[in-house]
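In response to the reviewer comment on reproducibility (Comment 2.3), we provide here a single inverse folding case reported in full, input and output, so that an independent group could reproduce the run without further information from us. The structure tokens appear first.
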């Protein structure tokens, strides 16, 4: 991975920490023209990068007007578009187990698609720039929340926050694995399964031995 791993891990740690507040950022502006432009750009972003010049070349001379806040807004909007596609794809799932619905959602959000993976890697370079880290944290919060939405979880209160904190840590590790080795679909799925098994095991241990008052055990299903 041609990026300082320490910088990315620090950004992920800060993003996970913001989950403790339990407050989700406002939805992004969404419209069909922006979505169409983002799909065209994402198809070449892995090779050509995320830039207004590339956007205009694939989506029209005035496409930059769709993203007045610049390239960081563009990458944040693409993350939001990927979240929505994941939620839509999960609407008709028949899987009865919550943990397996979470698994399905993660694999949909991080597919074995080299084009998507390289575009995400270039997008992380934008997020890790001086002006992009707040946008990254917003995008991360939305994605973790969207995975629970896609899994059709209806937790509220402290459990709502606890689940998002638990998933935030899990998703950080699988996201890093996907960026570096996501082209190996079997290895990636096995890694996701191990991480989910770890979370379930910790949850069972907490349920067995009790947890401190006011600290709900994380539940993945």
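Designed residues, in position order:
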């Amino acid at each position: 991975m041609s990026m300082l791993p320490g910088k990315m891990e620090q950004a992920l740690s800060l993003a996970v920490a913001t989950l403790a507040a339990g407050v989700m950022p406002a939805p992004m502006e969404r419209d069909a023209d922006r979505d169409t432009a983002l799909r065209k750009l994402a198809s070449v972003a892995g090779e050509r990068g995320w830039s207004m010049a590339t956007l205009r070349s694939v989506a029209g001379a005035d496409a930059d007007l769709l993203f007045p806040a610049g390239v960081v807004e563009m990458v944040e909007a693409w993350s939001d578009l990927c979240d929505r596609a994941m939620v839509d794809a999960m609407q008709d799932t028949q899987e009865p187990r919550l943990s397996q619905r979470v698994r399905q959602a993660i694999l949909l959000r991080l597919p074995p698609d080299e084009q998507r993976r390289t575009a995400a890697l270039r997008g992380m370079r934008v997020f890790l720039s001086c002006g992009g880290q707040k946008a990254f944290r917003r995008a991360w919060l939305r994605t973790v929340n969207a995975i629970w939405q896609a899994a059709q979880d209806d937790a509220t209160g402290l459990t709502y926050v606890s689940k998002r904190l638990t998933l935030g840590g899990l998703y950080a590790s699988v996201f890093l694995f996907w960026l570096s080795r996501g082209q190996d679909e079997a290895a990636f799925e096995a890694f996701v399964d191990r991480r989910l098994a770890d979370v379930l095991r910790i949850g069972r241990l907490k349920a067995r031995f009790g947890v401190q008052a006011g600290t709900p055990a994380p539940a993945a299903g």
